[in-house]
Description:
Blueprint: H1 3-13, H2 22-26, E1 36-37, E2 45-46, E3 53-58, H3 59-65, H4 70-74, E4 80-84, E5 92-96, E6 104-108, E7 111-113, E8 131-138, H5 142-145, E9 152-158, E10 166-176, E11 180-190, E12 194-205, E13 214-216, E14 219-224, E15 239-250, E16 256-270, E17 278-295, E18 298-315, E19 318-339, E20 342-358, E21 364-382, E22 385-396, E23 400-413, E24 417-428, H6 432-436, E25 448-460, E26 465-482, E27 487-507, E28 510-523, E29 540-550, E30 553-562, E31 565-566, E32 574-575, E33 578-590, E34 593-600, E35 619-626
Parallel strand pairs: 6-9
Antiparallel strand pairs: 1-2, 3-8, 4-5, 6-7, 8-9, 10-11, 10-35, 11-12, 12-15, 13-14, 15-16, 16-17, 17-18, 18-19, 19-20, 20-21, 21-22, 22-23, 23-24, 24-25, 25-26, 26-27, 27-28, 28-29, 29-30, 30-33, 31-32, 33-34, 34-35
Amino acid sequence: MQPSNICLRITALATALSLPALAFAQSDDAKDLDNVVVTATRTAITADTALAAVEVIDRKDIEQSAARSLPELLRGRAGITLVNQGGLGKLSTLFLRGTESDHTLFLVDGVRVGNATSGLASLQDIPLEQLERIEIVRGPRSSLYGADAIGGVIQLFTRRGSGDAGVRGRGQARVGSQGLLEASAGVDVRGARGGVGVDLAHQSTDGINACSGFYDPNDFSTAAGCFIAPGTHLDRDGYRNDNASLRADFAPNEAWQFEAQALRAAGHNDYDGDYADNSDIVQQVVGGSVRWKASEAAQLKLSVGRNTDTSDNHVGSSFANRFDTTRDSASLQGDFSVATGHALTAGFDWLRDRADVQDPWTPFPPVSRGNRAAFAQYQGKLNAHDLQASLRRDDNDQFGGKTTGGIAWGYGFAEGWRVTASHATAFKAPSFNELYYPFFGNPALRPESARSSELSLRHDNGGWQWQLNAYRNDIDDLIVYDTAIFAANNIESARIRGVELTASGRLGAWDVRGQLGTLDARNLSTGGNHGKRLPRRPQRSARIDLDRDLGDLGFGISGIAEGARWDDVANTLRVGGYGTVDARASWRFAAGWTLQASLVNAFDRRYETTAYYNQPGREWSLGLRWQPR
Length: 629
């Protein structure tokens, strides 16, 4: 593509507001903006009034955690299981509430992201240093977002400047074990009506030996893990990520607001394998929107975006294959206040996925698929009762029409107590690999469908907040490889039941956050695997974070534990449970300057999250951050 065409496409997309309806929240002084979420309802509400299980991670939390990647930051949080194939930068898949790794919808500034061929979002390649905020909504949201949201929705918001006029800069550098090198810098320039900003960042590591898999050249049936011939690929598997984000916003008056943003990450990844052992990757998200606030009771928002996911794969220096996918999306949404305590949201979504695969061994024709949808939502408050109802109709080029809905109720009682109940349906469209990949795909596949119910109890006494969630999710037409037809097929069903307990508060001088979870995810398909546990889902998980400030000094400890899991459908390959402890310390030695040290897996625990893929042992890092307040 010519540079001029790229500029034209970016200009066409760059028309505006990436935080859906957050502009409404900014005009309401009664709301604490740090507590506002938009992902649960596609409108601005406070997290404590959401009729769903919601977790927010802001920039302060990200910096305090000393995490080096998005998967590391999310690991062990309520409802989340992360499976990583060999350390920083390696393939990381997320299972939310026991659903499949492609059953969670990921958004970046409101733009749908994910690889159209695999159906997965490349979490390991989304740079953490470019993120301002993360909203996690657990539970199905297809009635608002359509396909992919069976387990929930995770939305990532990129860096943006403060609302104050002026010029503000920031910078960070970090070194660590395994040859870790990080550097980033950014600047925001704001005036009375808008602003622009840019952030640049680099991350690289020598890595570890990612995989211990093997095969016997004389008996390939013994292959395990990443199919490595004995004695090969015993080296470190490094990773490099160079990334940048751009943003601009402009509000000519109170009625109109425009915003545009772009995020690009390009890098190189080494891994273990015989069919390919290194890749050049590109992740790009470009989007924008325009908002018209007709009155205090009505606004319209038009948003557009594109996600590009490209991977050029090699064996040594020899070309193996190339996967190039794009996801274009557009949305028109109207929000209306019909009476005090009652609001309506309605709109239209459009999506087109494209994939161009170049593979000399398994030719894959270029494919595309479009989806059109209409949705509506009601939110109301009647005394101590809160209500939410939503309905959506999707029309897809591949599988036709699909209707989903959701209803939720909340009731506040006594002092600080609240009970909520909800029921929703959801679905997942087959990926291009499942539909068309040679010797595997099946164009006759149906969408996976789900029915989910949840009951929650929450208490907030001003010092401690805790919430208990119990849920059940029944999934039909799960897509698996069917040996009877030697292709993907809808042959399985599953039942997932779980309980989550989350709590946060202060214990003496310590800030405490914790979660406990238990999960029973079972295969209900007919045949020999009936009643077996779904692979890669631990039955029990826990995480606790303790942080304390002593003037200019800060200390923190995180403990993460997960039970054993099976790594295959037949439940014959067991991966043991584990527990790790991370420690961190910071020193604000001058105005705007912070020195931070961290120790990950402090007790050097050996463990795996999936069979045959190594996890790093004890790792340290030392960083310096400059950010004037």
